[in-house]
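Collaborator request, handled under Task 6.
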Amino acid sequence: MKTSKEQVEIISLFNGENLDKWTGDSRIWSVENGCIVGRTTDENQIERNTFLIFETPFSDFELRFKYKIIGGNSGVQYRSKVLDEDLFIVGGYQADMEAGTQHSGILYEEKGRGILAKRGEAVVVDEKGQKSVDQFANSESIQENIKSEQWNAYRIVAHGNHLQHFINGHKTIDVIDKEIEKKSDSGIIALQVHKGPNMEVYYKDIMIGKKP
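Structure tokens returned to the collaborator:
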């Protein structure tokens, strides 16, 4: 009988100094005061969503990071695919965050099925893509725990076909994705800046735990 817990390897995805191992539009992404910053301005606008892409793919993991967003919306792609290396276009699962009050914490599939789970939803997507939904919390109660224009702690858990998001310790979605042709078991991690009004998003303390 095993008495010890399985070992989990903890990896830092950001060294706090530069964008080593990350690739993206240098007009938009920078490092400031130990944070990754994605920023659009009047001088630096984008025609499409753009991503800062980490070089290594991951399968099962627990990803933790802190974020702060001012204006617009952003998100973290995981188990995703690079669709255009030159234009930094990515498609796949995305843990959203925004300056607004509705979408932080949802599961969105960029360039795919769209919103897979709204806030407070436990969703099962069957093999043919049919969804069953249970509500475990209301969106307003989740929003009450998210700090506007301040640092928030995000956690993404991906184990097999089970995906969960947490913000500041509160679960925001719970999804089991069984759709044969659409689910993703492995892929890259990437940070998003969304097209539209000028915005700033800050990331720090980006750590991933996985079985070695």
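The cover message to the collaborator said: "The longest helix spans residues 139-143. The first strand starts at residue 9 and ends at 12. Please let us know whether this matches your experimental observations."
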